[in-house]
Amino acid sequence: MSREKKEEGNRSNDLDRVIENSRRDFLRKVTLAGAVTVTGGAAIYSGHRFEKAKHREGYVKVLTEDNRLVEIPVEQMRDFKPDLKMLQSRGREGIPGRRWVMVIDLSKCRNARKCVEACQSAHHLRPYEYHINTLVMKESVNTPAYFMPKPCQHCDNPPCVSVCPVDATFKRQDGVVLIDNERCIGCRFCMAACPYSARIFHWQEPTQHEADSDKEYDVELNIPQKKGTITKCLFSADRLREGMLPYCVSACPNGVFYFGDENEDAVTNGTTKMTVRLSELLENNGGYRLMPELGTQPRVYYLPPKNRIFEFEEGEKREYKEEKA
Amino acid sequence: MDAIRFNTPEEKGKINSLATDILRNVRINTGFLLWMGFLFTLLAACLFAYLIQLRKGLGVTGLRDFTSWGMYIANFVFFVATSLCGMLISSVLGLIGYKWVKPISRIAEIIAIAFAAVAGLVIISDMGRPDRLPYVFMFGRVQSPILWDVTVVTTYFVLSLLLWFFPMIPDLAIAKDRLEGRPKFLVKAYEILSFRWMHHEVQYRLLGQAVRILLILIIPTAFAIHTVTSWLFAVTPRVGWDSTIFGPYFISGAFVSGTAAVIIAMYFFRVNYRLGKYLNAETFERMGRVMVLVGIVYFYFNLNEFLVPGYKLKTGDAIHLRELFTGHYAAMFWGIQILGLIVPIILLLFKQIRRPLPMLIISLFVLVGSWFKRYIIVVPGQAHPNLPIQNVPVEWVVYKPTLIETAVTVASIVLVLIIITILAKLFPVVPIWEMAEEESEKDKITQ
Lengths: 325, 447
Ligand code: SF4
Ligand code: SF4
Known about the structure:
Number of strands of chain B: 0
CATH architecture of the largest domain in chain A: 2-Layer Sandwich
Largest sheet of chain B: none
Helix content of chain A: 25-40%
Shape of chain A: globular
Bound molecules: iron/sulfur cluster
Oligomer: heterodimer
Number of helices of chain A: 11
CATH topology of the largest domain in chain A: Alpha-Beta Plaits
Structural class of chain B: mainly alpha
């Protein structure tokens, strides 16, 4: 409960800063676009929070289904809780008009592992279960070692999606590849097919399965996690819907992650909240993608580990002990 | 013109003596009951292991995120492979016109049925959510090779079942009056299943046509099941799997393990069922030749599969091949290649070796080798993914099958034996009418 509160706090902080800094304000547009999809003229929770700052006392501005901005008294607001059917249909559809991309600047990564931790706490994973994992990379004897955070690459030509027999893992219009654990039969063909080892399987009961058991399944958060199914990085699709940056992106203290929309050619750094042009960022820094020869067309770009202003220190070897069922 | 076959006293005599020999084994005796009791006890014990897996999840196996397909999938591939013998013996050799396959074609079909049927169950034991099996039919995506596999394996199973049953109808008719002393249900079953067969020429003609269609249909189906099974691996961009010859490589391997399985079964029936007259030394000697032929073809594909990447030594391939040739899997790899393939081929080149007992021993080596070969195709390819394995518990790095996993695999083998036993004990294993025909033809030639 307290963790949730904290998260809530983080979210509004993030948001405020985004509003201040972002030249393009692209994330605000997400909020509005998200709001339009709601039916019945119901007020939208996120819209409510966004507008809180500037409305007059006792009233909130909300966007109606037919795209009008109206003010209504706070007492008339009700929390909106989507049901499974809606979560599933909007989760499979994605956010129209968006093409999410991530840029990971390897020259800044010092293996703080804050991205890993934020992700694991958001998605209820054990310390050795990763949606994103920071790896030590060393290509050859004479090239330097560096740290590489590795989420799912959200391939545009995803081998995992091609092989899935039941459409449990799918590609959305906004570029995100998700996994529906209400559908997954646990054949693990997708794991065999993924060249980036991005997928993990619940070999035993997920860590918080009891506490989560009565939650409505949200495919964009993949909670509750389920035994015998796949889980993987979701680009924090639930946060994107609320107009926020992914958990890992906002958790990084070192400015490693940029996240944004390819259609707008803009990405925002999770630490500094600076929004920059995607094309310029990639061009000026020699951006590249992992294993381009495989033709998977990842949506995650890397900037090479050059001009690092710190020593590479691997730090203590961490021991991971498997929890026994 | 006489429209009824097997009507002359001479032919009737032949049928009589054949039926006595072959039907002698169709009965429920203590040996059978003891054997079945043993199998079912073993099965129950192993199914208990599966219950544990169901309750606790696949974590009770040695599988983890990096090696996520292991013994179950290897066993599945082995089962599909071995089931191909039905097609090889009855269809390929039969359609070419080899008469000597007649006495063993039904044995080959029984093996095909048993392995194909259980292969489906093996896959279910590998599923994280077996309760969602219906989803494959409800939400199936035709783009996924798993869908192709499900379709063709089921088709192959049905075709094999028909190919076993259709040619047996006249036998059932012959046998139904000769079953005194057998349980009532069996006699009844024979009566129903023989569909009032009259041995009429028209019936035989129709049967011949039906069987011929099946024999032709089953060839592409059999090629499909194993090619598609190989594609489960070959469609993924993984070291050791990313190969364009996986289809033919798997099929040729399937012929090897299938032939070995048939030889083992032949020996068993020859000795235990005292059918040496039909499963004679000559049949064995010919099966020995078949084994040499399919073995050489398989060897050729092995050469291609290992030599070509071994010459280029691309980074991933190099790591993979080092593991196989000199690393963790070296003993298994060379054991399989030498004892399970090369030595058997060389030995079987000699006529003195192509006799029942030596062939039984060789076939056992080949069959066991075939099982481990599947293991070595499935497992090591996953141990070295493109990106390093880091920050996980040490047990996750190298796959080691657990006892539970092994028990579930044993269960599948036991199930195969149960099916084979039932089919071979309740129905004639050697075709009576076809043998009678065979003998008449031989007589005609000698006259
Ligand atoms: S990185 Fe792997 S899991 Fe992610 S989209 Fe690509 S193939 Fe699928
Ligand atoms: S494990 Fe689940 S998501 Fe992966 S291929 Fe199988 S059904 Fe699809």
